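Now read these lines:
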Amino acid sequence: MTTEKRQLPVWQESILLIVTAVVLAVIVKTFFVQAFYIPSASMEPEMQIDDKLLVQKVSYWTGDPQRGDIIVFDDPGGWLGSAESSGPGNIVQRSLEVIGLYPSGGHLIKRVVGVGGDTVSCCDEEGRLQVNGESIDEPYLADAEANADRTFEVEVPDGYLWVQGDNRGNSSDSRYHLGDPGGGFIREDDVVGKAWLRVWPFSRFGFIDGTDAFEKAP
């Protein structure tokens, strides 16, 4: 005697599939990949306004951000204006953002130029950034001359990062917040992930390249 397996009604199967898809999307967003968009010109020319990109989190499961990484991080407090910190405009977009199917706002994207224990200063006689006394040639800068607009010397505390935009003349980065309570440093715990893949516009689709600019810094 054989028994037939009872099949769920179509409506129950549909609900089960939707719930499963949502759970998987949340898991992917939490542990693997998350979508973001670029709100400002601070990372030009590498990142353009309204670029859509995927940020991967796998690199930081067992390691920390490194000099040269382009990272997305939570606002340390007061770095974003009201327009930049606002999220999606309607409930559908907000719901999709929660499960990782809509690019998130309210975050910042910058390049790591100093990690815990580093001394970062600006600038040498040629206007170049210095890390632990070594001058850094940064070919990705939008305007190398703008690098020297703000002079500083800081020692990065352990567990923190010093970050700067590639468009140094138009970036409210660690230099800009040097006098704030946090001293311009961001916590490693605030890092969401590492910029990995540009998905829009399609004409610029591709992986986001790393840099060897900081290799000679001790």
In short: The radius of gyration is 21 Å. The CA atoms of residues 7 and 13 lie 9 Å apart. The chain has a mean pLDDT of 82.
